[in-house]
Specification:
alpha/beta
């Protein structure tokens, strides 16, 4: 791998060197750069530095300019306003940098993070015996994108799907089936979708009895004890529910075009044997205390409506363990056994308070510290067109499978309308890639902590900030390259050529891919990568409109523009793949 230093970083370094030479007392000051409408970059850190040193900013800026000799990198640099530096990068530097990126294969010159560690990312947390619904969408989509992005930057990323497979609800479900054995067909008689539908139906029936019948509630709680104690009959029934649910989970993840490995599915039950020790360690250290028979952790800054402290319940008064016990045990496992340096949780924002308390308790225990950190990626709600949480017309929660099927169906209509030379089989394949991509992109192009409206008409539109717009941009480039008969190795770059304004804008944006990806991964912000890709497609559209490719004036210019097409396509393909979205070769 040959990583490529971005033009932004190179210009930064030249400015810093010139500034240090002109003003040694400034130390290693590095002027801040930003994109400028009048030039490629504008340095504005000089103003702050001049103020700090009580000097004249224009005079300092002039000293810096006189100290820069980099014709290979900087075409022009001028002082403007009170002391800004407007910097124009040389055409040749843009093309040479892109050529170096193109030569680096799939990585496109993007360097690995030198401070990479091990991140355990907890996402896509379905519940055993329950159908996945629209509320599971964001955790799965955001988590998968972060998994891909962090991996690409060099982080060792370990996926964990903390499925709900333990606790009171399973005592309730198992006890109901013990008393009503005819309510569930034999496992061999149903497929995965039927099995989970049947389990979901039985779960609702058992919940109704549990809420209405105190004697059944007592029997169900005793069944929980039997489950936790390893009772053979109870465990066998529980294992069946888990196995059937996993088959269903995999079918939904496949529809989401996500790869989920069996070893990544580690439910609450996996930490059952650790919970008693976790509770003991918390109590012995004094982090947790007994209160009204329960083992809890109190926090001075977390209080309820009555101004009384809200406790984190580790163990209930009846001896049962709360969610905090399994979450804290999971932290111990991930830090001690998986050697994680970062714990990343992609969970509903409504769980933020719970995880704030869990993380603080873990910090008090020393399981989290300066070297091992935890972050809660609280995400917002999927809304309907009315701005309320997305529901069916009957007011029911929307099944995730139904939502995905509808997206694919809607995408098929769009693809069929645009298709020229695709078979029906190819249309259906593209419909899957476009439909699922549309759902993912709508989610990922929104900041995770914000709500967003689920609007399929907008999602599959060919216009605006949609994945379909990006996919069609990629397919258009592939069509051009096919017409040109571009060789496998890709068209050659021509750094000696002067670039048109649209070529420069596209080239500079392409060079920023690595910097943008590093920022998006560091901030756990896939929406920043999505925004970059949309701007890339928009800049390519402008380039395509203003700069003839196959009919350019000279053979060298044709080849150079084909080169820009090729690296744009490769960058779009890689960026979309990191978001978990396919880019069809033909649309």
């Amino acid at each position: 791998m040959a990583s490529v230093t971005s033009l932004t970083a190179s210009v930064h370094q030249r400015l810093a060197d010139a500034l240090s030479a002109a003003l040694p007392e400034a130390g290693s000051a590095d002027p801040l750069l930003r994109r400028s409408d009048r030039a490629d970059f504008q340095a504005n850190g000089i103003l702050a530095l001049a103020k700090k040193l009580k000097g004249n900013p224009r005079e300092l800026a002039a000293q810096v300019v006189s100290g820069i000799t980099a014709p290979d990198l900087i075409k022009d640099i001028e002082v403007s306003g009170p002391g800004f530096l407007n910097i124009t990068v040389a055409d040749g530097a843009i093309t040479e940098n892109l050529a170096a990126r193109a030569a680096d294969g799939d990585r496109l010159g993007v360097p690995l993070n030198p401070r990479a560690g091990t991140t355990v990312i907890d996402y896509a947390q379905p519940n055993v015996a329950k159908e996945m619904h629209v509320g599971h969408l964001r955790s799965a989509v955001i988590g998968d994108a972060l998994h891909q992005m962090l991996d690409f930057t060099g982080e060792k990323t370990i996926g964990r799907h903390h499925i709900g497979d333990w606790g009171t609800q399973f005592g309730m479900l198992i006890q109901y089936l013990v008393e009503n054995p005819d309510q569930l067909a034999p496992a061999a008689d149903v497929d995965g979708e039927q099995a989970i539908s049947n389990l979901n139906r039985v779960y609702k029936a058992s919940r109704a009895v549990f809420d209405a019948d105190e004697e059944f509630k007592d029997r169900a709680r005793k069944r929980v004890v039997a489950l936790q104690s390893g009772d053979k009959e109870t465990l066998e029934m529980w294992q069946r529910f888990v196995d059937e649910s996993k088959v269903y989970f995999y079918s939904v993840f496949e529809k989401l075009d996500m790869e989920v490995r069996d070893e990544e599915i580690v439910g609450e039950s996996a930490y059952n044997d650790m919970m008693a020790e976790t509770a003991r360690l918390l109590e012995e250290s004094g982090v947790a205390v007994r209160s009204e028979g329960a083992l809890v952790v109190f926090f001075d800054d977390i209080k309820g409506k009555d101004d009384k402290p809200v406790p984190l319940i580790v163990q209930k008064a009846d001896g049962g363990f709360g969610y905090a016990a399994s979450d804290l045990s999971a932290i111990r496992d991930r830090v001690v056994d998986l050697h994680a340096t970062t714990l990343l949780y992609v969970v509903d924002v409504r769980q933020s308070l719970h995880f704030k308390m869990v993380f603080e308790a873990a910090r008090r225990m020393g399981w989290l510290n300066d070297e091992v950190t935890a972050h809660n990626m609280g995400y917002g709600t999927v809304l309907g067109a009315d701005g309320k949480p997305f529901k069916t017309r009957e007011g029911e929660t929307v099944r995730l499978e139904d939502l995905l099927d509808e997206a694919v169906q809607r995408a098929a209509e769009v693809v069929r309308e645009k298709a020229r030379d695709l078979t029906e089989e190819e249309i259906q394949e593209r419909a899957f890639q476009v439909g699922i991509g549309a759902v993912k992109y709508a989610d990922l192009s929104t900041s995770a902590n914000r709500d967003y409206k689920f609007d399929l008409d907008q999602m599959v539109s060919l216009h605006g900030d949609t994945s379909v717009y990006l996919q069609y941009a990629y397919a258009r480039i592939q069509s051009i390259l096919r017409k040109a008969g571009a060789e496998t190795g890709g068209p050659a770059a021509h750094p000696e050529l002067e670039l048109a304004p649209a070529e420069r804008a596209l080239g500079l944006h392409l060079d920023a891919f690595g910097d943008t990806l590093a920022e998006a991964a560091a901030e756990y912000a896939p929406h920043k990568l999505a925004a970059y890709l949309y701007q890339l497609a928009s800049l390519y559209t402008s380039f395509y409109d203003k700069c003839p490719v196959l009919k350019a004036e000279t053979p060298a210019q044709v080849e150079n523009r084909l080169f820009l097409c090729d690296i744009t396509a490769r960058t779009l393909h890689k960026g979309m793949a990191l978001l978990g979205i396919r880019t069809p070769e033909r649309l």
